[in-house]
Amino acid sequence: MKISGIRIEHFSTNLDPPFRAAWDPEPRRSFSATLVLVETDEGLAGVGAGDAMVGFSESGFERHFVGEDPLRIARHVRVIETLDFHAGRYWPLEAALWDLFGKVANLPVAKLFGGVAERIPAYASCGELKGPEERAESAVRLKEEGFRAMKIRIDPRCAQEGIAAVAAAREAVGDGMEIMVDLNQAWRMAGDSTPSVDPLTVVGIARRLRELDVFWLEEPLPLTDTRGLAKLSRKSGLRLAGGEMARTTEDLLACLEADALDVYQPDVVLSLGMLRARTFAETVLRKNRLFTPHTWTDGVGLLANLHVTCGVGGGPYLEFPYDPPGWTPERRDFMLEEPVRVDPEGYLNVPDAPGLGVRLGEEYRRVLGL
Length: 370
Ligand SMILES: [Mg+2]
Fold this sequence. Notes:
Pfam families: MR_MLE_C (PF13378), MR_MLE_N (PF02746). This protein is of the alpha/beta class. 36% of the residues lie in helices and 19% in strands. The protein folds into two domains: 3-106 and 361-368, Enolase-like, domain 1, CATH 3.30.390.10; 112-349, Enolase-like C-terminal domain (TIM Barrel). It is globular and about 60 Å long. The mean pLDDT is 97.
């Protein structure tokens, strides 16, 4: 079997009312997703998504893959890393290759990745900044829907409001639900050069969150501040999480060596790719730390992260981007025939279908010629 072509198609859906992402000052009025299709001379095709694949087609990067055996994935990963060095993070291509591999093997990718688990409890990852009353109501609803955990974003520059929202959520759900908090301090919108909040401010926030029994504190400082993170970890008594956009395994190994993080979150379609994330996850788990990737892209990216996490036995929870009415499965997974949903027990289940189990909606299948 040979790769006969790589198709990249961009799609977008309107968001009315807009989604007010905590990490973006501009309300989002549309949401884009880029589908990557790997075609073969035998008619089988694989689908991936996640990163926007900017510059891939314009640079003619298909030429490094067309004519090659699609199942030589470790070879393709090395080539994608050379492209990443010059241009973007083209990990959705690797996801499409694994989707194809699973279809050839007639197995879900999670099985190819080790098959440790077939399902994992989801945490509702809330994306908007909401006041205490609204966040408490949302926490109660999530608990009623079966979620065992949720994540709340705090703007560290208005920490008191954020902490009040976490306190209200804790008060509303009691200790029957885990609560994580994300400060997004290793994350920047393009063009935003404001410095991160200083470590002492973060120590103060962390102390308050410890009292509220927060399960982990995410991105309290930039990832490059490994010493600051290690110190905060010792002082705060909280698990620290991060690494969602880490560019290389070495960046994350530096954190592991410095004992800077307790929870490692490389997104398999944005950060290290699937194979590298899996290898790194084994190291993390053997060091008795947690591996549970970021998944905030779209339904296809969520599925890719689900397969890797279940395959390698990560957890204990997986991110499920969900903060209705602003962020819903219908918006997130607009390209899928049916959105990915959490079962009534609060679990995400690995699809039974071969590959990633991506079932695109009819109009997207038509555009891709599937
Ligand atoms: Mg995050």
